Amino acid sequence: MVPLWMYLVVAAALFSTGLFGVLARRNAIAILMSIELMLNAVNINLVAFWRYNTPLDLSGQAFAVFVFVVAAAEVAVGLALIISIYRKRQSVIAEDVNMLKW
Amino acid sequence: MDFSTDAQASVIAILPEILMAALAVVVLAFDLLWRRAQRHDIGYVAGFGLLGIAAIVFLVGIPPQSGELSDQLVLGGMVRHDDMAQIFRVMVLLAGGIGALITMGIPRLRARGDFYAILIVSIIGASLASAAADLIMVFLALETLSITLYMLAGYLRDDDASAEAGLKYFLFGAFASAMTLYGLSLVYGLTGKTNIYELGRLVATNGLNEPPVIIALGLVMVGFAFKISAVPFHFWTPDVYEGAPTSITAVLSTASKAAGIGLLLRFLLAVFPPAELLGAAEAVADYSGLWVQLVVVLSVVSMTLGNLLALVQTNIKRLLAYSTIAHAGYVLMGVAAISTDKSGDGAAAVAFYMFMYVLSNMLAFAVVILFTRATGSEQIRDLAGFSRRSPWLGLAMTLALLSLAGIPPAAGFVGKFLLFRAAVDAGLVWLALVAVANVIVGLYYYLIIVKVMYMEDSPSEEPVPVDLPFKWALAISAAGVLLFGTILVTPLLDWATDAAHALYVLL
Hints:
The complex is a heterodimer of chains A (about 100) and B (about 500).
Chain A: H1 4-24, H2 28-53, H3 59-89
Chain B: H1 7-13, H2 15-33, H3 36-39, H4 42-59, H5 69-72, E1 73-74, E2 79-80, H6 83-103, H7 113-129, H8 135-153, H9 160-191, H10 196-205, H11 210-227, H12 236-243, H13 246-271, H14 288-310, H15 316-337, H16 345-375, H17 386-389, H18 391-405, H19 411-425, H20 429-455, H21 468-485, H22 489-503
Antiparallel strand pairs in B: 1-2
Helix pairs in contact in B: 2-4, 2-7, 4-6, 4-7, 6-7, 6-13, 6-16, 6-21, 6-22, 7-8, 7-13, 8-9, 8-13, 9-11, 9-12, 10-13, 11-14, 12-13, 12-15, 13-15, 13-16, 14-15, 14-20, 15-16, 15-19, 15-20, 16-18, 16-19, 16-21, 16-22, 18-20, 18-21, 19-20, 19-21
């Protein structure tokens, strides 16, 4: 059987990819996709921990289900906000959205 | 660990959420059924509904008096119904109710039933966050609060600043919550439990490797620091506060922040408890020193940077945004004190401070909405002569600013005094001294506004119109700020102290 640490490494790699994407990408859609990668890393973590540590206690799996339900809601709101910006400015580049400045 | 299965206790524990869910549906139904002219009054339903629920929570939502953890953990350990949950719930409900009333001063939002319904849902999230006792509930409550606030911040779609505020808040918020969630998944993985009291004991006694615990703690703190807008996770605050509809700025700076602080208190003490709280014999790992250091650092940089940047602001909403960053710093000083000072003074000071801070900020933002509506400006210089145009509003704004600055007779003074005392009692004297220096910096920019209002001449002498919802909102928050700073200090402080004691019951 594949050991637990391998899942955790995959999850950590996915999380780091997402983190890099959020910090490096300029397109709001790409940032949103990177955030989704980070949430998927969380889900891999949760399900792997559940399967290996406490297979009889379903709370880890329940947690994972809640995570992707909430992630779906978050994407819906995020895309709506991005579209409302796009309609005004014909751009989804995060740096162009900078009317508010200190 | 045993959880209470008492049906009545379970219902009372989530009574505010049940009532709020019903209220949201009622508001939506009125939005459909009422004619356009009637719909102008829909804010009263939402506002007085939330204030009524606050009264119900205060009178009926009394937690099980035994004080035992097993009686207070209900619904399979998802929610802990203790005094801390009660005081923070009353706080966020007051903030939400006043927030709904002052929304009625924004013409484009006044008759939008959907806006009020979403606002109520975000208050459900805030209210659950202050009682959450399970990682799943912590996550759900924070997301219910955040996702609805993203929508509300970007609600004025045809307004450039609002749409931009919504998008910025969303991108930063979703990023921070993903970081937190990864931290929560590690905490779950280390212990195999999701209930924070169960897993807190395992974190202390299981002899875990240190690095993963530290990483998990750090990641979780990112999300909390974002929610309470502590430096260095404050970048969104000024932009979002300036761009969002002003009533949502008010809710963001009060309900959202209070929920974050309430959750932070409970989470840190339960998941990374100081060894003495678990009985010295069984605990082997004590991570409380670590998070105290982390919180102290956040506290110092937040109050210093917040105050210094507030000095140069010309927009009143931006100034209040930086001032909330500074206040996050002050409150974190109390949070840092809760681990060493087991008397509960630190946590009581935090609860008291948040209560008065919610009322003071609501008062300030209510005046800002009226001022913006009358002059079409958010610049501080346009407040000139405000006290002559509307003496009562000028007085209300002065009271709010004095409270935020920490000058008696406003409640802010007592709150600051308690926080400083807690920090000194916990041995963080240097931190208290840094905070005193910061309070002096803060005095400068708060009093500048008072000076502009009272000493400078206004081009217009026309009084600023105050309509009925604002009379209510101003009266409630001003009465709170004054009374809790003078004759009602003791009852509120007693309540906060009871709440603080509940927080230390971990077994």
